[in-house]
Design brief:
Bound molecules: phosphoric acid mono(formamide)ester
Radius of gyration: 20 Å
Order of helices and strands: HEHEHEEHEHHEHEHEHEHEHHEHH
Number of domains: 2
Number of strands: 11
CATH architecture of the largest domain: 3-Layer(aba) Sandwich
Number of helices: 14
Shape: globular
CATH superfamily of the largest domain: Aspartate/ornithine carbamoyltransferase
Strand content: 5-15%
Distance between the termini: 11 Å
Strand order of the largest sheet: 9-8-7-10-11
Length: 338
Amino acid sequence: MSSSTHPRHLVRLHDLNADELNDLLDLSARIRARTGIATQRPLDGRAIGLLFFRGSLRTRVSLEAAVHSLGGHPINLNAESDFWELEHTEGVVMDGRAPEHIRDAAAVISKYVDAIAIRTAIGHRSWKEERRDLAIEAWTRYADVPVINMESALWHPLQALADLLTLRDELGELRGKRLAISWVQSPQPLSPAPIHSLVSAAMRMGMDVNIAHPPGYELDPGVLEDARQNSDSELRTGLTQKDAAEGARIIYARSWRSLETWDNPTLSASRLAKHADWRITEDLMATGEEARLMHAMPVRRNVEVTDEVLDGERSLILRQAENRLHTQKALLSRFLRP
Ligand code: CP
């Protein structure tokens, strides 16, 4: 399963060029309509390692189901229960918590499987350190097989693929359409990775993007600058929810941790308490242009988004979650082509 040539990895969506991305979205739609790779088993006899250093519901189930349906065998491992912390620092004296280095784990697992999918741990460093994404980078350096990012600190390309398919299903041509992204309240905000990937992907497709968030919840400036550099679309940040929603066809909700207080839970909690009214309501949705709701989930009902919106006709969240399965089947069948 190791190969002498350097394997191709998917860390962020930009690892796919425009033709590959459009081809994947087309194939995903055909798979969903059961007209693509319906009878083929492109992963026949192949094993895919899924390593989780953080919990997951959708990514784990949809990817495992995708591997199965393509004839492959998924091997799921959770760091908390099945193995242990891994070190990623080069040249370190390993007398701390981690008993094994990614260098060794990646080299060994590459002997057993045909691809390794990783969801990295996040949470105890400053954002400046976290954004370097050193763990996923170490996996790509030391694995002899393709590495697929199942969500690192900075990126969530698998979610972005499903988001793009959902946007395309709903809006058709994306160029010139407006996407509003709104930060929302939660007692446990999550990572900004899905939003970083979404902003980057949507602008690459020509969408204009409005981002609403309270002061102190700015997204990663490097990611936003990169999105601007790779697009001629408009990007407006730091808006109120209402200003962001005006003219938007899609309102995408997510609660992300403040990057400024990333490694300071006390300051984070006191800052969070001030923004309890940041949620998605029917009134806000009505501000958009026949706006639909998207959310990567998990979603805290009546904290982030009201039941009325989540269960109403505007909600795309189940179609969006379903698209995780179809896009991942397409990705695996293209990415792991024999
Ligand atoms: N959207 C998403 O990645 O969900 P999980 O965290 O449940 O995998």
